[in-house]
Amino acid sequence: MRKVSLRSLAAHKVRLILTVFSVVLGTSFVAAAVIFTSTVQSSFNAIFDNVARGVATQVTPADPNSPGVPLALADQLRADREKLGIDKLQVDFSGTATIAKADGSGLQTGGAPSIGSTYIPPDEAVDTAGFKLVEGRAPTAPGEVVLNTTAAEKADLKVGSKTVVALGAGVTPPIEVTVVGLIDMPAATGGMVNVQFERAQAEKLFSDGKYVGSIDMSAVSGVSDTELRDRVNAVVNGARTGDDALFDVRTGEQVREDQKASVATFLNIFRYILLAFAAIGLVVGTFIIYNTFSMIVAQRNRELALLRAIGASRKDVSRSVLLEALIVGLIGGVVGLALGVGIAAAMQGFTSSTGLPSDGLKVGWAAVLSAIFVGVVVTLLSAWFPARRASRIPPVEAMRMSAAEPGAGSLRKRTITGAVLGLVGIAMLVGGVLITGAGALALIGGAALLIIVAVVLGAPALSQPVVGAIGRVLQVPFGTVGKLARTNAVRNPRRSAATAFALTIGLVLVVIIGTLGASFKSAIDEGVDKQLRADFVISGSNNGPMSAAVGPAVEKVSDAQTVVAFDMAFVKLDDSDAVVTTPVGGPLSDVMQIDMIDGVEQVGGDSILISDQVRKTRGWELGEQVMFASTTGTDVPVTVTGVYEDNPALGEWIVGNSAFDKLSPSQAQRMTFVVLIKAKAGVSESALREQLETAVKPFLTAQVQDKQEFKNSFAAVIDQMMATLYALLGLALVIAVLGIINTLALSVVERRQEIGMLRAIGMSRAQLRRTIYLESTYIAIFGALLGVIVGLAIGLPLVYALRHWGLEALTVPWPLIVGTLVGAAVIGVIAALWPAFTAARTKPLEAITE
User: Where do the ABC3 transporter permease C-terminal domain residues begin and end (predicted)?
Assistant: First the structure.
């Protein structure tokens, strides 16, 4: 039987290639996901290996939202350096900063850090791998800076260039600077910008004279890093330990490991997302593999029956098929691994071009084993069911059959099972719609799983009437050719359903994501139209807050009637981190619609307005006093004076200006995240826009938008996220298309004698090709219809369940749905091109006598 299996594989090379190809499709993305995330993690690890080199001990605030480490503490450590064993000690004054490019616009980082910091000469630096001055000189006076080389290249700046730097927080106005040197920084990846000032100016710009971000120390000879850490910890924290400690005291090695761990957390989430989409591709690939082996076993009915007739047992037949599947799985896994390496390399090339770190492709044992394991296991499971089914057919009956397909009884049982699961899933969907909260999402998630399984089981029974109906409509212009294509498409419902389902599962996810995206955009549009009365909005263009000086600058615009800036600061509430905002400027009601439920609309000096959701969850009522704490530990009581309807633009609460000043006394800690402007009566929008753009030009990161542009900016973020998801889902759709090609190609092999007969009685090559095009189109449209219906059945209840979190708009993405159905027809034709061409080359007499 082993010889029979091996010779069968060798004798049918085209069939072997198509079968291996189906396995490759199902395994390559799994390998690519593992390789790519391992590569990115290795690249980040290589960067962090250079972080804090030479640092024996580092002191940072235990609370990341605190003002920093007191400078007095640095002075104390410096005074005790000999007793503690400190060699060098440096403090780093730093903060967010944006530098202007040569054309005057702000250098955007796409979310990467853009910071200003202190230039520390190499002979004084504790961190021995921080940077290297490669051109020019060090800054020695106010207004002189050095810039990392990658940022200088993007900004088109060089040594001697004059530009401006805007500080991202605080009220310090933008300052003019001259680039006097360029530095090479190992950690300057992903678009990072580092502008370094001479020490005195850095301290003035990034400190209130009392705090610093961190203190780095090196140890004298004979004192280990851990010894210095313990000694310093005893000084800065005293008897405080654990959560009570005011400062984190770590060795340089601990700093590096903590940074690796923080990135590892992000990469694990990223890996899970990639593997989730890989799983989707694998599910689609599994159906293709199963479909392929069902066809292969069906084509070998007579061969397997003959083996049974000459003495082979059922187990022998099953084992021979499984042996072939094992070989195919191994070959497919290896080839899938190779293709996965190529996909990972392409992904790495793309991310490297966007600035992410790259340290060479890392193909570890995890990727190798995952590809081969998935290839072998999925292939064996996919082959076992058709092999078991074929082995149960009596030899004499199998010799008369053209396919080892299950009878009506088998199809009836799976259809009934699918119907029951589908009804349970629908009942769970209804339950998810009727209740609110996380329970609703859990019910809908479970319902989605049951409905998809129900579709898997019930699709063969659905395929005959639905594909038949599609065929009757589309066959009209094609006459007999169209009718023959319809007959072929409905002849084998199990195969047609399995082929279509590969497309169905991809489109289910596309429609769900499309429904969510369209509903989110509609909700934003409705919210902005209803709640925003301002004519213009100024917000940060660098994915971050703006300087608190933007608001005062805009208030000087003559044609602006009302200007309201929303400042924000980090605080503590019940020992947890929180954010407070305060409106600064004119009447809030001029620029925003506020629907009050209780109390007054005006927010007084030491008062707070809260949303209805906060009142329900926290139990706060009118007149109640709430205690916030500043990052320096100062308690600030505020009184609830009003409750407004939930408003995403206002958030959970807004506090009065006096309370905000107490909670954020340091100007350097303040940030503005949006400024709303109402024009004076009779002033044209174009005139006011010009004045506003002139006012905010020095701040570099501030952008002026009208109401429609403001809505479009949110829509662009959603579209970008959806495009990323669609790109990942595109793999499942590509696999589905290739699966249709694979199935049709095997179908052509299976029907070779039939095709020869059709050619012999007068069918032309063009007619034969057209028949296969139409057959593929019918199946593809069936899969798309099924995907759209199931996607809407899950997506609409999901959006409705999210109303608890403020998603009130329920929008069906009709353009996406119509485009999907049209695209399915095109996919059907494209997928049939090669199989149709192969079929048309069939020689009639050879095929008939074969």
Answer: 276-395, 728-844
Contact 545, 652 (CB under 8 A): no
> How buried is 848 (Cβ within 10 angstroms: 0-12 exposed, 13-18 middle, 19+ buried)?
middle
Q: What tokens were used for 705?
A: 């938008």
Name which of 660, 674, 672 is nearest 531 in CA terms: 674
Q: At 290, is the pLDDT very low, low, confident or very high (cuts 50, 70, 90)? A: confident
* Cβ-proximal residues to 35 (8 Å cutoff; 6+ apart), any chain: 340, 341, 344, 361, 362, 363, 364, 367
What single letter denotes the amino acid at residue 578? A
What is the phi/psi pair of residue 110, to 5°?
A: 70, 25
Question: Would you say 78 and 236 are in contact if contact means Cβ atoms under 8 Å apart?
Answer: no
Cβ–Cβ < 8 Å for 194, 187: no
For residue 556, pLDDT beyond 80: yes
Give the other-Cβ count within 10 Å of 266's Cβ. 12
Helix (H) or strand (E) holding 87: strand 86-92
The per-residue pLDDT for 609 is 95
Number of helical H runs and strand E runs in the chain: 26, 23
pTM of the predicted structure, to 2 decimals: 0.72
CA-to-CA separations, 375 to 81, 196, 368, in angstroms, rounded: 61, 53, 11
pLDDT for 72 beyond 70:
yes
Alpha helices by DSSP H, listed for 475-531, are 480-491, 493-531
Portion of the chain with pLDDT greater than 90, in percent? 26
End-to-end CA distance of the chain: 24
- Looking at 300-313, list the stretches that DSSP marks H as alpha helix, in order from N- to C-terminal side: 301-309
Nearest to 290 by CA among 414, 411, 378, 404: 378
User: Using alpha carbons only, how large is the chain's radius of gyration in Å?
Assistant: 34
∠ CA 582-587-592, rounded to 5°: 80
DSSP helix, strand, coil percent of the chain (3-state; round to 5): 60, 15, 25
CA distances from 628 to 294, 565, 615 (A): 67, 22, 16
Across the strands, what pairs with 607? 639
Between CA 845 and CA 576 the distance in angstroms is 82
Pull the structure tokens for residue 804: 């608890």
C-alpha dihedral sign at 226, 232, 236, 237? positive
Residue 134's nearest CA partner among 179, 182, 178, 180 is: 182
**pLDDT digits over 87-124, tens only?**
999 887 888 888 889 988 888 776 567 888 899 888 88
DSSP 140: -
Under 8 Å between Cβ of 114 and 98: yes
Give the span between the Cα atoms of 59 and 126, in whole angstroms: 13
User: What average pLDDT score do residues 652-660 get?
Assistant: 92
